Amino acid sequence: MTPRALHLAQILWPAFIMAGILEMVVFSMVDPSAMSVGSWQPDARTTYSLAFFVFWALVSAASGLSHLMMREPTASVSGARRSRRHLRRGVAMQHQP
Q1: Which 3 state secondary structure label does DSSP give 38?
Q2: Domain contains 15
Q3: Which of 10, 28, 31, 88 holds its CA 20 to 30 A away from the CA of 70?
Q4: Per residue in 18-47, pLDDT tens?
């Protein structure tokens, strides 16, 4: 599995589970057959499906942002460590006779 696919799986699977939980919580309090958008009144299955995908997209976006913010400082810190290591090696090699 490539790192990109792993990161995607780390974001989408927990978001999928949370979307399912959100759906159960929301529709335990809201009747989907009573909902309408303008003059369009979708049936209950359509409402459940659309709400699930909206919840999944929102939670995925939040998880993706968190994942992105966690990775960024780590990459710059490891890059700084690598450059310091190379500097030390270069200085050590210059002093050898």
Answers
A1: coil
A2: yes
A3: 88
A4: 999 999 999 999 999 888 889 999 999 999
Q: By residue range, what is the domain housing residue 64?
A: 1-30+42-71
* Strand, helix or coil for residue 52: helix
- Which residue from 20, 17, 23, 6 is spatially nearest to 67, judged by alpha carbons? 6
Q: Phi first, then psi: what are they for 59, rounded to 5°?
A: -70, -35
Q: What is the C-alpha separation between 85 and 97, in angstroms, rounded?
A: 21
Other C-beta atoms closer than 10 Å to the C-beta of 19 total 21
- Specify the 3-state DSSP secondary structure of 37: strand
Q: What per-residue confidence (pLDDT) applies to 71?
A: 72
How far apart, in whole angstroms, are the C-alpha atoms of residue 52 and residue 88? 54
Tell whether 14 is covered by a domain: yes
Residue 56: inside a domain: yes
Rounded to 5°, the CA angle 66-68-70 comes to 70
Residue 1 CB partners (closer than 8 Å, separation 6+):
9
Q: Is residue 55 situated within a structural domain?
A: yes
